[in-house]
Specification:
Largest sheet: 5 strands, antiparallel
CATH architecture of one domain: 2-Layer Sandwich
Radius of gyration: 18 Å
Strand order of the largest sheet: 4-10-13-12-11
Strand content: 35-45%
Distance between the termini: 25 Å
Number of helices: 5
Length: 219
């Protein structure tokens, strides 16, 4: 693992806003590359973290997940052409899982679509798709922009995740229904007072998990 003192040309991977804290907590210094970033693979052991997510809570840095802002008069029409799911039913404050294919019907990738408001959406996916998205948008009045490096993200998963997030100050999150997202702010007296974040429930895949959330906060 490269140290902070080494020159930038020997540190080709970007660091997320959580990197220094995550590295301090990592007991085995196991990092992996993901979409141009370096992120923790395992903090302690696979076995311990498996039982944590099944019985308590786990934390995962999702900052490298690729995020696109899709906005404009034809944003919904474009997304409905792109994806295999009817997104006209997706209202503001809701999230939908979908896949998209090429012209031959072969699967390209999957991801989640957040409806942020009228004619404004966020598409989240594991791999970069900007060229395909922009090529597919020809003829549509829509702007597609990569906002990955503008948004930090954490996944909090496990049966105690709701209680954990309430303990750190995110009161009211229990009112969120599956596949909803809402805006919250850390209250005074916490480690990050005033920090605004957006929390979505039910957008990641883990069996027998009561509440799964991703905290999205602008850096």
């Amino acid at each position: 693992m490269l140290t902070e003192s080494e020159p930038h040309y020997r540190q080709p991977l970007l660091k997320t806003p959580f990197h220094e804290r995550a590295r301090a907590l990592s007991q085995i210094d196991s990092f992996i590359p993901w979409s141009g970033y370096t992120t923790v693979d395992v903090f302690t052991s696979v076995e311990q973290e498996y039982f944590a997510i099944r019985n308590a809570s786990s934390l995962y840095d999702l900052t490298p997940m690729v995020k696109y802002r899709i906005a404009g008069a034809d944003a919904l029409r474009f997304l409905n052409r792109l994806a295999t799911r009817d997104l006209s039913k997706l209202r503001a404050g809701r999230v939908a899982y979908t896949v998209w294919c090429n012209d031959a019907g072969h699967l390209i990738d999957d991801g989640t679509v957040f409806c942020l408001g009228p004619n404004e959406y966020r598409l989240c996916t594991a791999e970069r798709q900007l060229d395909w998205l922009r090529a597919s948008a020809i003829g549509f009045e829509v702007e597609i922009r990569d906002v990955t490096d503008e948004i930090a993200a954490l996944a909090v998963q496990g049966p105690t995740s709701c209680k954990l997030l309430k303990t750190v100050g995110l009161q009211g999150i229990e009112s969120l229904k599956p596949f909803e997202h809402g805006a919250f702010a850390m209250p005074a007296g916490t480690a990050a007072p005033g920090v605004k974040c957006k929390l979505a429930t039910g957008t990641f895949f883990s069996v027998e998990v009561v509440l799964k959330g991703a905290v999205w906060s602008s850096r």
